[in-house]
Amino acid sequence: MGASISLDFITHKFSATAEPTLKDIENRIEPGELVALIGRSGCGKSTLLHMMAGLLIPTEGCVRINSHQVAKPSAKWNMMFQKASLYPWMSVKENAALGLIFDGVSKGEAGQRVDALLDMVGLNDKKNANVQSLSGGQQQRVALARSLATEPEVLLLDEPFSALDAFTRTQLQEEVPNICRERGLTMVIVTHDIDEAIAMADRVLIMSQNPGRIVGELVVDLPWPRRHMDAGFQAMRDELMKQFKGTDTGLAGRHTSVADESEKTASAA
Ligand SMILES: Nc1ncnc2c1ncn2[C@@H]1O[C@H](COP(=O)(O)OP(=O)(O)OP(=O)(O)O)[C@@H](O)[C@H]1O
């Protein structure tokens, strides 16, 4: 079951003399909600996500998960990064079981628990393969199985598909929200890609830069699965672009690159 996340008046400076990277961030994410965080490069998206993961403590304010202040990482709020960070000398199954082993689960039981997850993420014929023999997309699937194995309440994704080919990316953009919705997990994804945000989220938060603030949001009330070529999807993309124009995110001036990225993804779907 998913947890709620409260961002309680977060301001952050990386040093006492620096300008704040994040300023007065306030929002509440409901249990089971799927949220995308978008904004210009360097606006503080990853910094905010790291705070939700307990990897960084804000200088002011706090993150609360199910009302408890987040002070350190936990298997209950798991983070997936752009690179899968797998151990090359271990098999797929051993890598997927790693979080459970760290949690003190026996090797035999951990193996059994990840078996079904590896089936679910489409790696049933790769369980004993060496992870070095897998493609980038397959490696991210191992990382996903590893993240899900500890039965987290929150899944935090930091541009997890940006290094993948468009076809694999589109597949995972459909599969990951499905998994979260089936399990009721709360998901927060950081992305540069407007199409990715619309494909995966119930709600998109838009961040500005210098300092990083949440300056807009869009509820994505489209049916699942999301189809990039559907009129509703395209209308949502237009609406999100319009919101960028209305903010000081700096993305308005970079519309071409943002739009190009969206079109690339859309044409691959
Ligand atoms: N450990 C750190 N020490 C000092 N400054 C940092 C540190 N980590 C991040 N920053 C700065 O904070 C700002 C926000 O960085 P962050 O990585 O959160 O942005 P982002 O929106 O995720 O960017 P991108 O989309 O390019 O990944 C940047 O100016 C970055 O240089």
Compute the number of structural domains.
2
Query: For this structure, what is the CATH homologous superfamily of the largest domain?
Result: P-loop containing nucleotide triphosphate hydrolases
- Judged by helices, strands and strand pairing, the structural class is alpha/beta
The portion of residues forming beta strands comes to: 15-25%
| Architecture per CATH nomenclature, i.e. the level-2 architecture of the largest domain | 3-Layer(aba) Sandwich
CATH topology of the largest domain: Rossmann fold
Instruction: Spell out the helices and strands N to C.
Output: EEEHEEEHHHEHEHEEHH
- Figure out the total of helices: 8
Overall pLDDT level: 89
Radius of gyration, whole Å: 18 Å
Low-confidence stretches: 249-269
Q: What form results from the Cα inertia axes?
A: globular
Name the hetero compounds present. Answer: adenosine-5'-triphosphate
Helix share of residues? 25-40%
Major β-sheet profile: 6 strands, mixed
Q: If strands are numbered along the chain, what order do they take across the biggest sheet?
A: 6-7-8-3-9-10
CA distance, first residue to last residue: 30 Å
Q: Report the CATH C-level class of the largest domain.
A: Alpha Beta
Q: Could you tell me the number of beta strands?
A: 10
Domain ABC transporter: 5-234
GO molecular function: ATP binding; ATP hydrolysis activity
Keywords: ATP-binding, Nucleotide-binding, Transport
Organism: Amphritea opalescens
